[in-house]
């Protein structure tokens, strides 16, 4: 029988120590739903800056990844919607932060391509608009497509519902939004969960993210959880 690889359950502060200045960080969630708040708060408190934030949106200035933007911790944001966080637009227009926007379907497909090891994909979305500027446009059977390149990150902070000690993850409700896809596309994946159970306690049919993709587990709301091996 293959040896079971037990993943460490650590405090949020311990988990985010792997994130260094200049790193690219994916953060799951859509508006309020599915954001790993315990991890984003710990990263904010750590003070790490010059980050490239990859998230669907920058939510609001006072919570989640929005605090990282409002606190001047990000040198660049890659997203599909930033209208709820006025600081995002202001920093971009003042030349203090780079901003790259993609249609939402294109955004998540770029991450999916990165996680699958693909060289990119072709999409008709944005052809003939500002979206295609600086990108390769390919014509197939008389129809034009934009070549979109894959998107990966140094670290992904994802929000799941339950994990077992091998790092297998289940999701519920809006936690399913971008989190499972991001868990495939980063060098280091840290999952914030409600509960960690023993190996064998999860219904295999409910597992969405396999433990081989996950490096560390953090309990929701737990910022002082003792490291376990």
Automatic annotation (TrEMBL):
The keyword Transferase applies. It holds the Pfam family CoA_trans. GO terms for molecular function: CoA-transferase activity. Keywords: Transferase. PANTHER family: ACETATE COA-TRANSFERASE SUBUNIT ALPHA, KETOACID-COENZYME A TRANSFERASE. This is Branched-chain amino acid dehydrogenase. It comes from Cloacibacillus porcorum. The lineage of its organism: Bacteria, Thermotogati, Synergistota, Synergistia, Synergistales.
């Amino acid at each position: 029988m293959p040896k079971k690889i037990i993943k460490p359950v650590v405090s949020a502060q311990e988990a985010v120590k792997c994130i260094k200045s200049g790193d690219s960080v994916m953060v799951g969630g859509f508006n309020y739903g599915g954001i790993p708040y315990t991890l984003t708060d710990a990263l904010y408190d750590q003070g790490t800056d010059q980050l490239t934030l990859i998230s669907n949106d920058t939510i609001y200035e006072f919570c989640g990844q929005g605090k990282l933007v409002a606190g001047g911790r990000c040198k660049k944001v890659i997203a599909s919607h930033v209208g709820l966080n006025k600081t995002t637009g202001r920093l971009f227009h003042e030349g203090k932060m780079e901003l790259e926007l993609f249609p939402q379907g294109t955004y998540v497909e770029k991450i999916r391509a990165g996680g699958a090891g693909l060289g990119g994909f072709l999409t008709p979305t944005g052809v003939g608009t500002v979206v295609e500027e600086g990108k390769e446009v390919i014509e197939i059977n008389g129809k034009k497509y934009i070549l979109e390149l894959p998107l990966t990150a140094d670290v992904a902070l994802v929000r799941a519902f339950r994990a077992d000690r091998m790092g297998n993850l289940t999701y519920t409700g809006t936690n399913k939004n971008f989190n499972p896809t991001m868990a495939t596309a980063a060098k280091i994946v840290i999952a914030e969960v409600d509960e960690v159970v023993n190996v064998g306690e999860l219904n295999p049919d409910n597992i969405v993210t396999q433990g081989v993709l996950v490096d560390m587990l953090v309990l929701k709301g737990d910022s002082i959880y003792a490291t376990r091996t």
